[in-house]
Design a protein that fits this description.
Number of domains: 2
CATH class of the largest domain: Mainly Beta
Radius of gyration: 18 Å
Largest sheet: 4 strands, antiparallel
Number of helices: 1
Structural class: mainly beta
Number of strands: 14
CATH architecture of the largest domain: Beta Barrel
CATH superfamily of the largest domain: RNA polymerase II/Efflux pump adaptor protein, barrel-sandwich hybrid domain
Distance between the termini: 54 Å
Shape: elongated
Strand content: 35-45%
CATH topology of the largest domain: OB fold (Dihydrolipoamide Acetyltransferase, E2P)
Order of helices and strands: HEEEEEEEEEEEEEE
Helix content: under 10%
């Protein structure tokens, strides 16, 4: 059973009225990925449907009629073992090391609400320092620094849904 455009619009209305920052939903061949922060990437829309700015609409290959399927944009490519990566913002310096999500979940920069983040851009870290948390079903996993270095860039907003292997931040070795 495929959701109708009206049902998709209702889901989006509920999402926009909620405190959620990101939503990913898959029903049949329809995939929906939306973000209030706009971190999901560029927008590509069919003229038949007007939804929210961070939603991409394309017909699926298996569909012979004009039913749109909502699809997520390509995920950020994790860095290779050499530390290089081409991310949405462009190529990163070769010596930067990507810190990637170990699982699908919600990314948190702070240990608890109303507490300062574990790290900020420019912060120096030691190997095994906690950089962030990923929550999966009320279980929190600390992401630790693989090396001593400086936080060069943080790519994900607090309380954002992340995918396995998604680049969360880059470290610059010191």
């Amino acid at each position: 059973m495929e959701p109708t455009i009206k049902e998709i619009q209702e889901i989006l209305k509920v999402f926009l009225d909620s405190e959620l920052q990101d939503l990913r939903l898959e029903v049949g061949s329809v995939r929906l990925a939306v973000s209030k922060s706009g971190s999901l990437g560029a927008v590509a829309m069919t003229p038949a449907v007007a939804l929210t700015p961070a939603v991409a609409l394309t017909p699926t290959a298996s569909t012979t009629h004009a039913t749109p399927a909502v699809t997520a944009p390509p995920a950020v490519t994790p860095a290779a073992s050499t530390g290089t990566a081409a991310a949405v913002g462009g190529a990163k310096p070769a010596h930067w090391v990507a810190v990637t999500a170990t699982s699908v979940g919600t990314f948190y920069r702070c240990p608890a609400p109303h507490q300062p983040p574990f790290v900020e851009v420019g912060a120096k870290v030691q190997a095994n320092d906690t950089l962030c948390l990923i929550e999966v079903m009320k279980m929190f996993t600390g992401m630790t620094s693989p090396m001593a270095g400086r936080v060069a860039e943080i790519l994900v907003a607090d309380a954002t849904l992340v995918e396995h292997g998604q680049v969360l931040m880059y470290l610059e070795p010191v």
